[in-house]
Amino acid sequence: MKVWRALLAGIVAGLAVASPASAHPQDAPGASDYRTTVTGISPALPGLTIRTADAGASLELRYDGPATVEVLGYSGEPYLSVGPGGVRQNTRSPASYLNETLRGGTEGGDAGAAPEWKLLSSTPVVRWHDHRAHWMGPQPPITVREPDRPHRLREWSIPLREGVREFRVTGTLDWAPRPGTWGWWGGVVLLGLGVAVLGGWRVGSPGASAGSRPDPWAALVRRGWFVAPLLGVLAGGLSLFDSVGRVLDAGTFQREDLWGFAAGGAMLAAAGYALLRRPAADFALGLGGAALALLCGFSRAAVFQHAIAPVPWNGLYARICVAACLGVGLGLAAAAAHRLRRAAPAD
Q: Are residues 164 and 294 in the same domain?
């Protein structure tokens, strides 16, 4: 146990150290229909990397070289400075105001004024909304006339500067077809019903006499209640996998991620408790299932409506994880409630 605690503490500390400075408040979407892709840095600069984050809503730049790299704003003015001394933001850059929110902030600053730098972090990594690289409108563009196939919306570039040398980060912005929302919700319902029936439904009276014919359904249910915790282990593992992906994409822990890890861990603990046939296992498994469905299912259900999930891999895996958390979690909660009700003494 001490080893696992030390490992967990090391992971948390490592992510805390590597957390990027944010040049804007956190308003990342739960999912998106727009795929932002970084295609390259021209010319290449050793130690400089850039990636998308927050389901494509943000860019994250890291520079581990000896010099200082500046991200230029919309008028070519210095906006961000990343180097050995950390990350600084030019508070007189209009981009500092326009990038405050995902949909565009207020106007302000003066692109022609001398920079006034504000230290954001001592770590040379920064994340910001750049409106050149993502879609700002509340509605899809009119060019998306066939929503069932991808559409290239534009190619984008962002200028960088290191001393007198200029660089460009280039990329593409695409519309990604939305998943079949109702199909995923239908799968959740079927999975939940299956787990509920497998784990909790009893056919026949539990108090049948010894001379009565054996009920094959009762034997199936007894075996089913053993399988149900195993499904809880699977769903709990998938919830942790999805939570890890969200932390990797964000580069730091958010409150909802902590709740997701707690729910996944609680589900694994409750399933193990039930597999050991401990007292009050039904209650523990039902409570764990409800927490899993709420904190790792409903709270992340936006991935059923949008193609791009806030994870560093294909959104399909995020949808599978969320569907498993919802279906198994709700099914276990319903099964446990049924078993507890049947086991309760009559008044």
A: no
Residue partners of 231: CB distance under 8 A and separation at least 6: 195, 199, 328, 331, 332
Is there a single domain that holds both residue 323 and residue 189?
yes
Residues 48, 25: Cα–Cα separation, whole Å: 24
Distance CA 167, CA 45 (A): 8
- With 90 as the cut, is the pLDDT of residue 220 above it? no
Q: How far apart are CA 231 and CA 224, in angstroms?
A: 10
Asked if the structure places residue 209 within a domain, the reply is no
280 with 331, same domain: the answer is: yes
Domain assignment of residue 193, yes or no: yes
Span of 35-39, 90-94, 160-164, 339-343 with lowest mean pLDDT: 339-343
Shared domain check, 151 and 63? yes
Pair (166, 189) in one structural domain: no
- Kindly state the tokens that stand for 82: 């990343």
> Checking DSSP bridges between strand 125-128 and strand 21-22, what pairing results, if any?
parallel
pTM confidence score: 0.81
Start-to-end C-alpha separation, the chain = 44
CA-CA distance, 289 to 328, in Å (whole number)? 7
Query: Starting from the edge strand earliest in sequence, which strands make up the sheet with 21-22, in order?
Result: 21-22, 125-128, 58-63, 48-53
186 and 335 part of one domain: yes
